[in-house]
Amino acid sequence: MIKALIFDLDDTLYLERDFVMSGYRTVAQFLSKSDAYDVESLFSCMAETHSAEGRHRVFPVLLERFRISSITLSELVHIYRQHDPAIHLFPGYMDLLQELACSYRLGVITDGLPAIQARKVRALELERVMDKILYTWDYGADKEKPDPFSFSLMLEYFHADPESVLVVGDNPDKDCKGAHGAGIRCAQVQHPTVSRTRSGVVMQEAPEFIVDTLFQLPQILRHLN
Fold it and tell me: Following CA atoms 107, 109, 113, 116 in sequence, which dihedral angle do they give, to the nearest 10 degrees?
């Protein structure tokens, strides 16, 4: 009998790219005010560099292309990390989570800088429906998924046996491997938008279930129960 559900955050409950683009737009707006650059030109430069060269090249290319000397790379990173994100859950997910919360304990386990992840949680209003939100880096970056440490902590918080919990995440090698390390079954969600960005990436850890959307979870839960 499943009594609790543990969710990943990024690319499971919302599209992480939306957070990234929200940060780039914040940086563009800041620079346009301080240096009178065009917002859309700045934003387009960052978005195009992100797609072509990867996230690590975005701000160096921006500084070079616009010959910006009034701000440093580290200051741009700070603005990006401190921004309040304009992000939303996948359509219909809040209603689904509220429905699930009537029958199950709900939790989130997420990697990354806790302050950044907490701003995402607030923007998504997840505190309305989650019983526990666990930031792995609060216990050290070495405890991030797939380390089973955070999953074991969640079991303790829920006073639950591994057999009574299901983990839901988009990355088997992090979410499922970490869950399996704590003896918990895992469902991988493969949102089409997210899956396209990972074409060619071979995952090594096999989930017990694969879904295209969280709306398929109730069917899995009925099967397990």
Answer: -40
